[in-house]
């Protein structure tokens, strides 16, 4: 066993991309669930321990790490999927930051603007997705990954982000052939495909609400 432990709520949220990466890389991990009532009710000691008062928490043996993107970068380096050169690593970071920007917009929309801002969010979504379509087109004509010829942690993060968008906007990638093919290609990787179809994953909602 690798000794990996993911501590998070019983949902996909910001821990899901970590699970996807580990599954695709053939790693095993255990889950420690934190109930939302305990966390927000102040009954969880873990909230006091968390560096920024947030989950997920990730353990690699005795090493403890917080912040989902820091965890991704750590695993990217550990599994050799963070770029083959300084330039590739920088581009992967750039794409990952772009994913984070849109993820934050999505979270704001769901929690604060769902009733009043859905039309506006959807109208702007194509502009955001077109940036990722363009990135794919610049690497092997969109036939491989976001950067280089090897999967990176940013690929998993982009795939997870697209899953989030499709939850409310099921046709949002239909006009982006490279993104559509990217989703199919990454999702069909044998180990990742098995995880994406698993009961453990599919019983978890994406977020707290909606």
From TrEMBL:
Conjugation of reduced glutathione to a wide number of exogenous and endogenous hydrophobic electrophiles. Residues 85-206 form the GST C-terminal domain. It catalyses: RX + glutathione = an S-substituted glutathione + a halide anion + H(+). Its main location: cytoplasm. This is Glutathione S-transferase. Its EC number is 2.5.1.18. GO terms for biological process: glutathione metabolic process. GO terms for cellular component: cytosol; mitochondrion; nucleus. Residues 2-83 form the GST N-terminal domain. It is found in: Cytoplasm; Mitochondrion; Nucleus. Homodimer. It comes from Eleutherodactylus coqui. One of its GO terms (molecular function) is glutathione transferase activity. Belongs to the GST superfamily. Pi family. It is an enzyme of class 2 (transferase). Keywords: Cytoplasm, Mitochondrion, Nucleus, Transferase.
């Amino acid at each position: 066993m690798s000794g990996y432990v993911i501590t998070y709520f019983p949902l996909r949220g910001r821990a899901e991309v970590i699970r996807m990466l580990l599954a695709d890389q053939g790693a095993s991990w255990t889950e420690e669930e934190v109930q939302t009532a305990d966390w927000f009710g102040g009954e969880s000691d873990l909230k006091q321990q968390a560096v920024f008062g947030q989950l997920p928490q990730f353990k690699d043996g005795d090493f403890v790490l917080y912040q989902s993107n820091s965890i991704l970068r750590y695993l990217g380096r550990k599994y050799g999927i963070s770029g083959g050169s300084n330039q590739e690593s920088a581009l992967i970071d750039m794409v990952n930051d772009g994913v984070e920007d849109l993820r934050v917009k999505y979270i704001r929309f769901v929690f604060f603007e769902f009733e009043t801002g859905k039309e506006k969010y959807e109208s702007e979504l194509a502009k955001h997705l077109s940036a990722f379509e363009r990135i794919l087109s610049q690497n092997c004509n969109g036939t491989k990954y976001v950067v280089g010829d090897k999967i990176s942690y940013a690929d998993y993060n982009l795939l997870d982000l697209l899953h989030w968008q499709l939850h409310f906007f099921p046709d949002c990638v239909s006009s982006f052939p490279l993104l559509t093919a990217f989703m199919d290609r990454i999702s069909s990787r044998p180990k990742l495909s098995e995880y994406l179809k698993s009961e453990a994953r599919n019983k978890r909602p994406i977020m707290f609400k909606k």
